[in-house]
Amino acid sequence: MAETADAVVIGGGVMGCSILYHLAARGMPDALLLERDALGSGSTGRSSGAVRMHYSTEVHAQMAWRSLQVFRDFDNIVGGQCGYTNTGYLVFAPDAAVDGFRANIALQQRIGINTGEISPDAAAELAPGFRLDDCAAIAWEPLSGHADPSGTALAYAARARQLGARVRLQTPAQSVEVTGGRVTAVTANGQRIETGRVIVATGPWSRRFLLDHGIDLPLQATRHEVIHLRRPPELPYHPGAGDIANLIYFRPEGSELTLIGNGNLEDDVDDPELYAQRPTQSFIGEVWTRIARRIPAMAGAEFAAGYAGLYTQTPDSHPVIDRVDGIDGLYICTGFSGHGFKLSPAVGLLVAELVLDGQTATIDLSPLRMSRFAEGRLNLPSYGFRVLV
C-alpha cells in the first residue's frame, strides 16, 4: 500500500520546522517533513541568531515584529525553548544613509515596532566604550536580542510531532511528481509518497531542486563568515548592534564572547555540499579591524572561534514565498538572504495560511511573489548592502 501524507515539507531547517508546526497546529492531521540530513544541519545550524526589527520594507518589518512576539514568549505560544536573550539592539547610521535610516524608523513605528532614534549620550549609556562620533543617527530597539536557531528548529519539530506530524531524517527528496498540472507525489530515497501539497523549503539547495522541475528562479548560494572574539576584561558586556558605517553586525555570545558578521564580504557557491566552513585569515583581520573602530577595546580581544555558513540570496535580498503558477499544490519558501531565522515564526504561520486557506490573512505576501523578478518589481532596500543580517 502506498504511503500518503496530507502535505510534505521538503527541508528541515528552521523554516521547514516552523511550517510543519503551523500546519499541525492548524489541524492538518498528517503533515510530513523530509530532511536530507539532520534537522538544522544546513543554514540554520550556522545562523548568527540575531533577532532585530530594522528593515526598510513593510513586509520584512511586519514579519520580524510578529516573530519577535513569538520568540519572547515561545514556551507559552509554541512550547519548548528557543533560547531567546533580550540584549536590545542598536543601529548606527553614517551621513550617507541617514535619510533612508530615518524613513525606515518611521515605517517601523507605523507598524507598531518598539524602536526610535536616540541621542549619542543615550547610546553611550547603553553601550559604554563605544565610539559614536561617526554616527549621524542611532536607533535603539529595547526588545530585540538573539535566540538559538538550531534549538528553535528542534522545538518546532518536537511540538509538530506532538500534534501528529511526522519527521523523517536522512531522507533527501529527489523529485515532485506532477500529473495534470497538480502535485500527486514526492519521491524520497526511492520511495513514492502520495500527497497533493508540497512545500519546498530547501535553502541553498533550492535553485538546483527547482531547476530539476522546470522552475528557474534567481537564487544564489553565498558563503558568509562569522567570528567569535573573547572580550577584554574592560568590556564585560554590550548590546547587539547593526553598524551600517562599518558594514558589520555583532552581538554578545554568552558571558565572554562577541559574535561578529559582515555586510559586504561574500562568495558565490556553486555546490552547497562543498564550501569552506572555516573563516579565512583575511576575513578575521578585516572584521576585527572594523569592530575595533566601533568598540576600541576590542582591539585587545582574543580570537575564540569562527565558521562559515550559506545564505540563499535573491536579487533584492527578499525571500520567495508563493504558490507555483500552473502547478496546483506546489509552494516555495526560500531565498531569505541571511534574514530567515528572525522571520521564521511568522513565515511558518503565513505558509500554513497560504496552503490551507489559499491566501494569507496575517500579512500581505504579494511583495514576495515569484513573478516579481520577471516583472521588475523588486523590493529595493534603503542601503546598497545587507549589513543588518
Folded structure, characterized:
- It is a single chain.
- The chain is an alpha/beta fold.
- It folds into two domains: 3-47 and 150-219 and 316-375, 3-Layer(bba) Sandwich (FAD/NAD(P)-binding domain); 86-143 and 220-313, D-Amino Acid Oxidase, subunit A, domain 2 (D-Amino Acid Oxidase, Chain A, domain 2, 2-Layer Sandwich).
- The protein is built from ten helices and 22 strands.
- The protein has helices at residues 14-25, 58-72, 74-77, 98-111, 120-126, 149-162, 206-211, 281-294, 340-357, 372-375, and strands spanning 3-4, 7-10, 31-34, 50-51, 85-86, 89-93, 116-118, 137-141, 145-146, 166-168, 173-179, 182-188, 191-194, 198-200, 220-230, 240-243, 248-253, 257-262, 267-268, 302-313, 320-323, 330-334.
- The strands form four sheets. Strands 6, 7, 8, 15, 16, 17, 18, 19 and 20 form a nine-stranded mixed beta sheet that branches.
- A hairpin with a 2-residue loop joins strand 11 and strand 12 (182-188).
- Helix 1 (14-25) packs parallel to helix 6 (149-162) and helix 2 (58-72) packs across helix 9.
- The mean pLDDT is 96.
